[in-house]
Amino acid sequence: AGIGKCVAMDLARRNARTILACRSRERGQAAMEEIQAATGNPAVVLRLLDTSSLASVRAFASAVMREEPRLDVLVNNAGVTGLPFTITSEGLEQTFTTNYLGPFLLTNLLLG
After folding, report:
1. Angle between helices 25-39 and 2-13 (to 10 degrees)
2. Burial class of residue 109 in the structure, from the number of CB atoms within 10 Å of its CB (0-12 exposed, 13-18 middle, 19+ buried)
3. Are 57 and 104 within one domain?
4. What is the C-alpha to C-alpha distance for residues 26 and 22, in angstroms, rounded to an integer?
5. Which range marks the domain in which residue 23 is found?
6. Are both 32 and 67 inside the same structural domain?
7. 3-class secondary structure, 49
8. In terms of domains, do 24 and 42 share one?
9. Cβ proximity of 101 and 49 under 8 Å
10. How far apart are CA 105 and CA 103, in angstroms?
11. Could you tell me which residues come within 8 angstroms of residue 90 by beta carbon, excluding any fewer than 6 positions away?
């Protein structure tokens, strides 16, 4: 939704292979189908990613590095605000992990 969806729509319109990295399979699937229909670009794909989980970040990055011949653009757009203080299963504060640690780790893992 929001800025991320707009960026993905623009990339797909430019005929880019576009990976939607979404936490929710249902919302991601709906966005993928909408973008494919609006742009005529079938190379819009959905992959699950939860940046509040470093294990999810590692699994996503590993799959991208294994499956994609190259990565030209990375848009880190995930973020949360206003959540109650919560510690993740990995022992990290959820908002900080979602907004900073997860995207930082993802970027570094995708640099290869």
Report:
1. 40
2. middle
3. yes
4. 9
5. 1-48
6. no
7. coil
8. yes
9. no
10. 5
11. 53, 54, 55, 97
The per-residue pLDDT for 78 is: 82
pLDDT digits (tens, 9 = 90+) for 40-50: 999 999 999 99
Domain match, 76 and 93 both:
yes
For residues 67 and 49, give the distance between their C-alpha atoms in angstroms, rounded to a whole number. 15
Total residues belonging to the chain: 112
Q: Which residue has the tokens 């990375």?
A: 74
Structure confidence by residue, pLDDT tens digits, 50-109: 999 999 999 999 999 999 999 999 999 988 999 999 999 999 999 999 999 999 999 999
Same domain, 44 and 9: yes
- Pull the structure tokens for residue 107: 């970027």
Question: Which of 30, 39, 54 has the alpha carbon at shortest distance from 109?
Answer: 54
Domain edge (last residue) among 10, 26, 48: 48
Count up the domains in the chain and report the number. 2
Please check whether residues 38 and 58 belong to one and the same domain: no
Q: Is this model's pTM higher than 0.90 or not?
A: yes
